[in-house]
Amino acid sequence: MERRYPVLRLSVKVLRVLAWIAVAVAAIFAVVGAVGPSMGGIERLIVIGAAILYGALIFGLLMIYAELLRVAVDIEENTRGTRSAVEALRAERAESPASGA
Q1: 3-state secondary structure 10-57
Q2: pLDDT digits (tens, 9 = 90+) for 6-26
Q3: What are phi and psi of 40, to 5 degrees?
Q4: I want to staple 58 with a disulfide (CB 3.0 to 4.6 A). Which of 22, 23, 29, 37 is the partner?
């Protein structure tokens, strides 16, 4: 079966890469927040927590969006395959003589 929507397939891959980049950037910010500027204990924990939360949120949203695009492409492929199968069955029934008539 022909593969359609190459841009959507590429978008899924790009979104997954961006999701992992967001995790890496958040980890870097968390480390910089932990060892970086001279802050009090609670401010340092807030920076680390915010970086981790931000990274997890962006990662989750990008992965969800990538999966939604993938599901849409899969639904289209399955619908097209079902249509082909139904058309083949109709053609087969139209060619065979009616039994019992």
Answers
A1: HHHHHHHHHHHHHHHHHHHHHHHHHHCCCCCHHHHHHHHHHHHHHHHH
A2: 999 999 999 999 999 999 999
A3: -70, 170
A4: 22
Residue 34 lies in a domain: yes
In degrees and rounded to multiples of 5, residue 44 shows phi and psi of -65, -45
Q: Cα separation of 66 and 77, whole Å?
A: 17
What is the rounded average pLDDT for all residues in the chain?
89
Residue recorded with tokens 């001279």: 38
Per the domain annotation, does 55 fall within a domain? yes
For the whole prediction, is pTM greater than 0.90? Answer: no
Q: Which domain holds residue 87?
A: 7-93
Establish if 13 belongs to a structural domain. yes
Domain count, the chain: 1
